[in-house]
Structure formats: C-alpha cells, structure tokens
Write a structure and sequence with these properties.
GO molecular function: metal ion binding; voltage-gated calcium channel activity
Pfam families: VGCC_alpha2, VWA, VWA_N
Keywords: Calcium, Calcium channel, Calcium transport, Disulfide bond, Glycoprotein, Ion channel, Ion transport, Membrane, Metal-binding, Signal, Transmembrane, Transmembrane helix, Transport, Voltage-gated channel
InterPro entries: Ca_channel_alpha-2/delta, VDCC_a2/dsu, VWA_N, VWF_A, vWFA_dom_sf
Structural class: alpha+beta
Protein name: Voltage-dependent calcium channel subunit alpha-2/delta-3
C-alpha cells in the first residue's frame, strides 16, 4: 500500500513539474512573440508617412517661406505695459456707461422736481397720453385697425438690442403684476419720467455702443429705451414682467451694504398656511440681497434654531449658494412650542453687535427682519437694552395675517427703531412689499442729497447676442448692469425721504471684450475681470447656470456668482510621500488677494486646462499680469503662456501702398474671419446709413442697416481703405469728463423743459466724433495673411513628381478638407471631396469659424513645444459606430512658428480632415507585414495580438474593432490603462469642475416637503375672509385699532394669489454628524439659555453612478464635479533621445498565473502612441470612466470648500451711508393691506356687515 501511495505522489509531482515547465515555455514564447522591434518599425513608418503626407498636403513649408519673404518681426511683449493699455481701454469704455447713467439720474431728478412742483400750472408738453404701454404697442384687430387702447410705434429690428424690433426715439413702459398705472403716484411718475426720452436718445447718439437704458420707478413701472413691445416675439412669457424692484441692480443701488438677521416665527401658534406665507416673505427678502451683504436666518419657538448647521453663530455672504442653502434648510422646519421672542431678539442683537464690534460683516447697515403671525407685546425691554438710544439696528416687522393686537405691537417696534411695518396677506404681497425695507435704508443717502453711489451688478444671461456671426442668433449674451439711485429733491410740508427710483443701463460683456483684442494676447492667451468680491465678470471658462428663459420671458435676471479660484485650476504636485504640494494654489490665492485690494502685479504658476467638454486636460505654465480698472470695482488680468506667449509675430501689409486691390486676396467663399473680433466697425447706425446713402445703397425701413456677415463688413472697409483720403481712425473716442452734479442745495434750480436733453447735446467726449473705428494692426495683418495663404489650392509645384506625390497621398488618405487658420482670425479652407447635399453634418467652416478658440488650434500650439515637427490628431468622441458610413473624419493640425533673430512666435495653424477608414487601412497595411529581414512570428493581423493607436489623452484613434474609435481606452481595457499609468506613460490627473450642473433628481434636499401651493378656491376664500376681517376691524373704535391710520400708504393693487414654485428642498440625514467649532466669543454676548446649539447635521451626499445627463434648466442646480483625466508623458517614451518601445507585462491577473505582455511605442511626428497587447492570457479587464461625478460627502454651502470661501478676502464698497441725524423725524413707517380697491363681492359683504352691525347696535 505504501509503495502505491509513493508512486502516486511521485506521479503527481512530476505532472505538476511538467505542467509548470509547459507554462514557463508558453510564457517565454509569449514574451518572445511580442515583436518589439517590429512595433518600433511600424510606429516609425506610420508616423513618417503621416508627417510627410500632411507636410506636403498642407503646404506648411510654403506658407512659412511666404511669411519670411515679407517684412516680419518677432516682438517681445511687455505684459505690464500691455495690461495698462488694455485696462485704460476698459476704463474708457465703462466711463461712457457710467456717465450715461449719471446724466440720466441728473435729468430724472430735475424733471421730477420741475414737473411735480409745477403740477396743475401748465399742460404737459407731451399731451394727454404720455407713455407707450409695451403690452399695447402695435396691437391690431383682425380687420387691420388699431385695437382700442393700443398705440402705434414705428419699429425696426436691431441686432444690438437682442435682435428685437425697437424705436430709437421713444421708450416703452413695462409693468409687473400688481402695479396699477392709474394710481396717482404712478401717473405722476409716468408723466415726469417721459421727459427722459430725449436724453435716452442723446445718450445713444453719444455712445452708440449703449444697450438698454431704463428708469425703474419706485412706484412699480419700468421705463425702458429703446421702445419695444412686450412680450417679445418668440417669448412664451406673459404681458407682465417680474418685479424689477427686487433685482440686484435696483436694490443694491438704492441701499448701502447691510447685515440682515431674519427671525422667522416657527412656533405652533403659526398655522401651516401662515408659516408658508412667512417663509415666502423671508425668501423674497433673501432674493433682494447681494454679495456685499451679510445674512442669516433663524427660526424661533421655545428655542432659537439655525436651520443651516454650519451657519450657526455666524453671518454669511449673501451669495446665491448661501441663499439657496438657507431656503432649502428652512423648508425642513417643523412648527412646535410657543414663541420666545425675547430669545430670538437677544440672539439677533448679540450676533449683529459682535459683527459690528469685530469689524466683520458689511460695517454699514444692520437690520432685524421679524416675521410672525402674532405677538402680545412690543418687547421694549430687550430692544431698549440692546438698541437704544442710538438705534444701530433697524427693525422691520412683517405681520402675516391681520391679528389686530399684533399689528399695533409690531408697528410700534418698527417705528421706534427706524424701521418699517408691513402686513402680508398673500403671496403677491409677500413679493411686492419686501422692497419697502430698501427704500427705508435709502433715507440717509437721500437726505444728504450728495452721493449717488454707482453700482455694477453681477453678470447674468440676457437676450440674444448682437454679434454678426452666423450662429449669434442662437447665442445668448452675458450682461452686467450699471445703476444709480434717483432722489426726490422737493421740499415737503412733512419730513420725508423718497427714492423716486433707479436708473441704469445694461453693459453686454461681448462689448467689453471687444476693447481687449484677442490678437494682442496671442494664441492660448486670455483675459478676465474680477470684482471687489473676487467674483468673475467674464472669463473664457465661465459657464453660467441656465435660467430656463426666465429673462426672455419675464425680464428676470439670474445672476452668476463664480469666484476666480473656481475657474483657474492650479496643478497639484505630489512629494515623495505622495503628499500634495500646493505651491500653485498658494500663488493663485496670493494673486486673488492682490486683485481684491486692488493692486498691480504679476505672477507665474501652472494650471490645468481642459478641452472638449472636459474630456481632455493639459497643464500649462501661465504668466499673469493684473491691475485695477480705475473708478470701478473691477480688476483686469491678462494671461500669457510662459513658453510662447511672451513673443508675437508681426507682419502687416500696408493697404494704401499695395500695388493690387487687396480685396483680390479675398475672392470666393472659402474664407472666414473671426466673428467676435473687431476689424473695423461703424460707430453708429446713422453713420452706416450715411455711408450707404452716399454709395447709392438702399436699406429697408423696418430693418437695421447692417452687414450680412463679418466677411461682408471686412470687404466693405478694405475696399474703402485703398481710396485716396482714407483715414484709419484707430484710436477709440475718449469718454467725457466725470459727471458733476448741477444742483445747488437740496432744492436745486428748476429749469424749464428745455433742460431735458438740451444740456447734453454737446458732442465733447462723444463716441460719434468719428464715423468708424478700425484696428489698423489687425486689419493689415489680416491682409498679409490673406496674401500668404492665397492660391494654395492652385498647384505651385512645377515638377511632375510633386503632382504624383500629392496624388499618391490623396489616394492613400482620402482628404475631405484642408485648412489654414492664422493669428489674424482668418480661416481659409479647400474642400477636396464634394459634400452630399442631404448630409445633416455642418460644414467644417460652420463649426470652426472661431478657429483660434478651437481645441485643434490650441492643442497644436501647445504640441509645438513638445515636438515641433508633428501633427495633433483627433477623432470625434464615440464615433466608432459611424465608421461604416465613412462619416468619421480624422482632424490633424500643425502649428506654424516663424523664427526671427533667435525668437519664435506662432503665425497660424494648418490642418487636414481626412476619412478615418483610409487611415485605418493604411495602418493595417503597415502593421500586417514584417519590416525586418529575418521575419516575425506575429503581426497585428494575428489573432492573439491587439493593436491600438491612442492619442495623448488616452482616446482610441485606431482599433481592430471599429466601434472602439473615439472611445476612452480605459473603458475598453482599464487594466492595461492602469498599467500605463503605473509605468508613467500616462499621468492620471484629477480635475474638479466647480461649475458643474446636477439635477434635482439626485439632490439630497428633495426628500422634504416644499412650500404648500395654495388651493385656488381656498386661497380666494381665505383672501376674502381676511379682507372682511379688516373691513370689520375698520369699524371699531380708534383705541382698539391702536395705530395711526394716516401713517400708512395704501396700495391700489388687486389681491391675487400666485402659486410660488419652490423646487429646492431640504432633508436632514443621520450620517456623519457635521462638527462645527462654536465661536467662543459668542458666549459672552448671549444673555439667555434658550438658544439651542444642537442642530441637525447637513445631508451627506452619495454620488450618482452612471452616465450623467444635462438636467432640465428648471430642475438644475450647481454642484462640484470630479473626474480623472489622462495626459501622455512623451518624455517617458523618449529616453536618451531614442524612441524605443517600452515593454510591459500584466501579472497575477488570472487564476492560471499566466501573464499578459504589451508593448508601447511613441509614433513620431504626432501626439499618438502605438499599443500592442498580447491576448493569450485571458486577464480580467476592469473599466475606467472619465464621466464626471458629483463629489461625495457634505455638499452645498456647508462643504469644506464652500466654507473656506467664506474666509476669503473681500473689498467693501467705498461708500456707506447709513445714518442721518434727522431721520428720526420721518413719521412714515408702515403700511397695511389694501382696503380701497376690493373686489365687488368683498364690497357687498362689507356693506352687509355694516348693516348687521347697525341693526345690532340699535336693537
């Protein structure tokens, strides 16, 4: 038996040894069968073939020679001098806008003064009906006659006014919901503000680059110039606009910065319905705040609670993120216990006092907003302790409902603390009446009658772009608004301080960028502007959240708030212990601090740049030059790439000295210019009209005289530039002198009606001093580039061999289009294959007209410093399934740098688009054959070898499986991709997108219930009951009513319930409590133990898994996204100057213990690598994804990153006007609900109640 066992054991051992020997031999054969030398030869031949073909077909050498045959220069740029030059241009541009607004303010105050003081003495020169109601402009009946009450206005379409039909002589009136144009105050303001039309028109004549000008009256209407109908054509909005008085440009101009504490009663004495109305009131207050303001909201019942945990014992910037967080959190509050007003007031006073004493917050206005349904006292003791006698904190009280006893108490609280009392009975009043607080805070500024602070709003998405580009009609433009308040300068019999309104004008960002020419910054250079809070006015990577057409439909702006540290993404390096080194991040923060101060300076650090919808990433070292834009809250920065941005290529053709007509170089339709660049332009429509009249051209009356395309405009000026007597006009007009008030004292002088407009007719400092502007350097560079690139479609090679080479190349790679794009914005192309007429794909020129902004241009410029003699290749992402139809095109681009006196600069980029299948066939032909003399065992045609061509971002250019084309290789074989990262062939880079867009579908705040939408019938009934109660109370003795009726200004608005849609909601989670260190300083300020310090933790977010889809704009929210992208490290494949293959091997990837070798070879003259993988070992393959995912953990305003932003430096506005010693003399400090204009049913019920009361009293 033992011998049997022994023999079995020996047999097993021998079997294992034999198996291992076979496996070892198999591995050895497998390793030897990877033809590394062949891989190198394949890559070399493939790369050289592509390079030689592309070099000849694009005629890059000929273009370079043509440039050198002319006078050229490579000049060094001085970044600081360039910065100062551009900052002066931007200042000049902004001065025009500011001065236009100040002229409007001055004339508005004078018009109101003369009109209101002379009322009844003379008939208005404007006749009976003084205004054009935008709702009734050009409204005709079916029979073609003007409808009753409508007015005719001559209008014509104008590009610069959002492509709307307008009248350049008249303004129109836009009306929010609830504003009655027949009210006396409204009618009076309509009458005197009509005098602004001549000044609107004169402003536009002096500065034809002006956009919409407007006067927003405190009475509720908006006068907008030029006049146009509302709603605009194509809009789905109603005839009523959103109430502009709650918008940033109005509120922030009307009041100085402020610290606001909102106290919301959350006791069980508040009914659910009234609490929802109180919430709506609080939310409307929050919506009026801006980034110079500080805010917090607390709820109080028996204890005080801070709904947002990380805001406890703090006041935070009123940024959109923080406002959104507060709104979401408040909706989770549950009503309970009784109301402890003392605790709430003490907490609010203590926190405001702390911020006032410590130098934090706005250091200007401070206010408490108390929102409640009832209170049994006026809380004089606690108010006296904290706020008297100097009253540093204003108190505004909002009574929800009509509790008679509470009305008196809340009115007394507001009136004795320089505040205002408001009664809120429905959602419409919650929206309209919150603006009262801003009008009260404006009183000191109005009483001094001196300063008119100029306010610049955050940027927002407005209407259609005014550009000439073929796609401009489908683009919306970014806009900021400059505004200033208008004061009532009349003498009144009682002490008042009335804000008549706010005047402003929109400033399109596309107009600002025109004065910072891209050609001066060069390829991959850019500029940006930040405000006093570090928020970006514009930046090439700024992507504002969509507004779901709310501006187009309601004229309601959705303001963007993106910090510069969220757009410039510094590269993070890692030390030996894999610890992050934040040198670049620290330099970015230092630069931000300097720009906030503001301070001129320069710095240099490395940032990450992402392309193609954040699917590619590269790193680039930038030089930053920054400095203030004088007399504005803004700072300008220009950014130049460190490797090539310090030099510019200069080559111009003097047009007037040219022997030929320069338009000869622009024949045909195969060229475009950059549609956003200013080559030449007329300063006004009238200047263009005069020019066309002199040329005998005709323009339709209902259409703006304009050019059909940027190319037509360029040709127009080129044809005139060669004429005798041509003047360049290359200096933009200078802005007028700063505005000075023309008033003396508070009364001022009351000039006659001739004052309006006549005092502003002077053309001194006007932009219309010259009829046009031309950028001489840019236009002459364009002509030189056109000369150099002209005729490239004609054969310029005399030898027959040249023709044969090109023909062979064309047959080898089927070229669809060849192109050249130059530093002057010129794009010229040649179509080599006739496009099918029914193809849905846009032509190359349609997608690439902004050539310098495209990915292929930017990447080609960067590639030059990696490998000068090379092309950058790319295919459309995920295009593999279109291969069979030959629709997929490979784009190849190469940067032309011209050298002069030892320095090089970019002159342009040449390129090709050719059919992918022809490239794949050529690759297969090369890699299916052995190149050596000894032969090879396996090629890419073998079953057990997979061959791929990958680009420098890890995307598949060529694969044996056609559907792989355009896919990220990590999705095909993540195991190999991981190995390429470990071998440092690719570098994995984590990219954060702080402007991500997520759907509310995966929003962790959506589990809690939102605000109740009032039932229509129930709302009607509730509304009428309130009105009846108010009517009944009006019959009571004055002692019971307890507040002076004459101090109220009653509205004449109909009471209408409006459904408020609040989509953001809040849910408390139980995971990972958020621990916020409590400020120890606060303890000494609190005098009550009723403050609850334990608050629920914020919701922890679990990121969405799977592909992300762009959410519907109505349900979109901002979120932080994170993704891993990949960058090729070509130096790893070029050790010692030798392009040798790098041999790799996957081990321990299968239970059998087999291994999987692979070979990687750089393809010369390209951004590509050749990857050959052995497939014998069935290794499991994981998948890597580059799809952005939302950051896990605490999200929103309580995230670590957002909390860090709260500590970043800001610069307060220069002016704070929050006190006037005589303000306490003003008696007007509250208003209740409307009783004068009730619906018929209420009036009938009111009469019935009067009758019943009379009968009962006399029974």
């Amino acid at each position: 038996m033992e011998s049997k066992h022994w023999s079995c054991f020996v047999a097993i051992v021998l079997g294992v040894l034999i198996f291992k020997m076979h496996i070892f031999v198999a591995f050895a054969d497998q390793d030897e069968d990877i033809p590394h030398n062949e891989v190198r030869n394949w890559a070399l031949k493939f790369g050289v073939d592509l390079w030689e073909f592309g070099r000849q077909f694009t005629k890059m050498n000929e273009i370079k020679s043509r440039f050198k045959d002319n006078d050229i220069e490579v000049k060094r740029k001085d970044g600081i001098i360039l910065l100062r030059e551009l900052a002066a241009e931007v200042k000049n541009f902004m001065d025009f806008k500011r001065n236009a607004v100040m002229r409007l303010m001055d004339s508005a105050e004078q018009a109101a003064l003369s009109e209101l003081e002379g009322q009844g003495q003379a008939e208005s020169p404007m006749g009976g009906q003084q205004h054009y109601d935008a709702r009734r402009i050009n409204e005709y009946n079916a029979d073609g006659k003007l409808a009753d009450g409508a007015r005719h206005m001559d209008i014509r379409f104008m590009r610069r006014f959002e492509r709307l039909p307008v009248n350049l002589s008249l303004s129109s009136i836009l009306v929010p919901h609830g504003v009655d144009l027949d009210e006396p105050d409204v009618k009076s303001a309509l009458q005197w503000s009509g005098h602004l039309d001549p000044l609107f028109q004169n402003n536009l004549e002096q500065d034809p680059a002006l956009s919409w000008q407007y006067f927003g009256s405190s009475t509720g209407f908006l006068r907008r110039f030029p006049g146009t109908a509302w709603p605009p054509e194509g809009s789905k909005g109603s005839k009523l606009i959103h109430d502009f008085r709650t918008h940033n440009w109005f509120v922030q101009a009307a009041s100085s910065p402020k610290d606001i504490m909102i106290l919301l009663d959350a006791s069980s004495s508040m009914t659910e319905k009234f609490f929802d109305l109180g919430m709506a009131t609080a939310f409307n207050i929050l919506d009026t705040l801006g980034e110079d303001d500080f805010v917090n909201l607390i709820t109080f019942s028996e204890v005080v609670k801070t709904p947002v945990p990380c805001f406890k014992d703090r006041m935070v910037r009123a940024t959109p993120d923080n406002i959104q967080e507060i709104k979401s959190a408040v909706k989770a509050i549950k009503l309970q216990d009784t109301a402890n007003f003392t605790a709430g007031l003490e907490y609010a006073f203590s926190l405001l006092h702390k911020y006032n004493q410590s130098g934090a917050g706005s250091q200007c206005n401070q206010a408490i907003m108390l929102i409640t349904e009832s209170t049994s006292e006026s809380h004089k003791d606690v108010i006296k302790q904290y706020n008297w006698p100097h009253m540093p904190v204003r108190i505004f009280t909002y009574l929800i409902g009509s509790d008679s006893g509470s009305r008196s108490n809340l009115h007394d609280m507001a009136c004795s603390n320089k505040g205002f009392f408001v009664q809120i009975n429905d959602y419409d009043e919650a929206r309209r009446k919150v603006i009262d607080y801003a009008l009260v805070m404006a009183r000191p500024m109005i009483m001094y009658q001196a300063d008119h602070p100029v306010h610049w709003s955050p940027v927002f998405v407005a209407g259609k772009s005014g550009g000439l580009g073929r796609d401009s009609e489908y683009q919306r433009r970014l806009v900021t608004t400059v505004s200033t308040p208008v004061f009532d300068r009349r003498n009144h019999s009682v002490r008042v301080a009335n804000l008549l309104g706010v005047v402003g004008t929109d400033v399109p960002i596309e107009e600002i960028r025109k004065v910072i020419p891209q050609h001066k910054l060069g390829p991959n250079g850019y500029s940006f502007i930040v405000d006093n809070n570090g928020r970006v006015l514009y930046h090439p990577d700024l992507r504002p959240l969509g507004d779901a057409n709310q501006y187009i439909d309601q004229l309601k702006p959705k303001y963007a708030s993106v910090d510069i540290t969220e757009l410039e993404l510094p590269e993070t390096e890692f030390g030996n212990n894999n610890e992050p080194i934040e040198i670049n991040k620290n330099l970015l923060n230092e630069m931000r601090g300097d720009m906030i101060k503001p301070k001129e300076g320069e710095t240099e650090f490395t940032v990450m740049n992402h392309y193609d919808d954040s699917k590619r990433v590269s790193t680039r070292t930038h030089r930053y030059f920054y400095g203030p834009i004088e007399d504005t809250p803004f700072t300008l920065a220009i950014v130049l790439p460190e490797k090539y941005g310090s030099h510019e290529f200069v080559s111009q053709q003097e047009i007037r000295h040219s022997r030929n007509n320069v338009t000869e170089y622009f024949k045909g339709d195969n060229w475009r210019v950059h549609p956003d660049w200013v080559y030449c332009e007329y300063n006004s429509v009238s200047d263009l009209e005069k020019e066309r009249e002199s040329s005998g051209e005709y323009s339709p009356r209902d259409q703006e005289p304009s050019f059909g395309s940027p190319e037509e405009q360029v040709l127009h000026f080129l044809s005139r530039a060669g004429r005798p007597g041509w003047k360049w006009m290359s200096v933009r007009p200078k802005s007028p002198q700063p505005h000075h008030n023309m008033h003396s004292g508070s009364n001022g002088n009351a000039p006659g009606s001739s004052h309006f407009g006549s005092q502003h007719q002077s053309s001194q400092g006007s932009r219309k001093a010259e009829p046009y502007f031309c950028d001489r350097a840019l236009l002459q560079s364009l002509v030189r580039d056109a000369m150099v690139t002209d005729g490239l479609d004609r054969n310029t090679t005399g030898s027959s061999s040249g023709k044969e080479d090109k023909q062979q190349g064309y047959q080898k790679f089927v070229v669809a289009t060849s192109f050249v794009a130059t530093r002057s914005g010129l794009l010229r192309w040649i179509d080599h294959v006739k496009r099918p007429e029914d193809t849905p794909e846009p032509h190359f020129s349609e997608d690439n007209v902004r050539a310098m902004d495209t990915s292929w241009y930017k990447r080609a410029i960067d590639q030059h410093s990696v490998e000068p003699d090379s092309f950058v290749y790319s295919v459309p992402f995920g295009s593999g399934y279109a291969i069979k139809s030959n629709a997929t095109l490979v784009t190849a681009s190469h940067a032309i740098f011209v050298e002069h006196r030892g320095h090089k600069a970019a002159a342009g980029v040449v390129g090709l688009q050719f059919q992918h299948d022809s490239l794949a066939k050529h690759f297969i032909n090369i890699t299916s054959a052995c190149t050596g003399m000894t032969g090879c065992k396996r090629t890419c045609a073998s079953d057990n070898l997979d061959c791929y061509v990958l680009d420098n971002s890890g995307f598949v250019i060529i694969s044996e499986e056609m559907e792989h084309t355009g896919k990220f290789f990590g999705q095909i074989d993540g195991t190999i991709m991981d190995s390429l990262v470990q071998d440092r062939i690719y570098k994995r880079v984590t990219v954060n997108d702080y402007q991500g867009v997520c759907s509310d579908a995966d929003n962790p705040y959506t589990a809690a219930g939102g605000i109740l939408k009032p039932n229509r019938l129930g709302s009607w009934f509730f509304n009428h009951i309130l009105a009846l109660s108010a009517a009944w109370l009006s019959l009571m003795p004055a002692s019971l009513r307890a507040w002076p009726q004459e101090e109220y200004t009653y509205d004449n608005e109909d009471v209408v319930f409006v459904d408020n849609n609040y989509s953001d909601e809040y849910e408390f989670g139980n995971e990972n409590e958020y621990n916020m260190q409590v400020d120890q300083e606060m303890d000494e300020f609190f005098t009550t133990a009723d403050v609850e310090y334990t608050t629920p933790p914020p919701r922890q977010h679990k990121p969405h898994v799977g592909p992300r889809f762009s959410p519907d704009p109505h349900n979109a929210r901002r979120c932080d996204l994170r993704t891993d992208l990949y960058m090729l490290q070509p130096e790893r494949l070029n050790q010692g100057g030798q392009n040798n293959p790098l041999k790799g091997k996957l081990t321990n990837c299968h239970v059998s213990g087999c291994e999987r070798p692979f070979s990687v070879q750089k393809i010369p003259h390209s951004n590509l690598i050749l990857l050959v993988v052995d497939t014998l070992c069935p290794c499991g393959s994981k998948q890597l994804d580059i799809e952005p995912l939302e950051e896990a953990g605490v999200i929103g305003a309580c995230s670590t990153r957002r909390q860090g932003q709260e500590q970043e430096s800001r610069r307060r506005p220069k002016k704070c006007i929050n006190y006037h010693p005589e303000e306490i003399e003003i008696q007007q400090c509250g208003r209740g609900s409307t009783l004068l204009h009730m619906s018929g049913s209420v009036i009938v019920a009111h009469l019935l109640m009067v009758t019943v009361t009379f009968v009962l009293a006399n029974a």
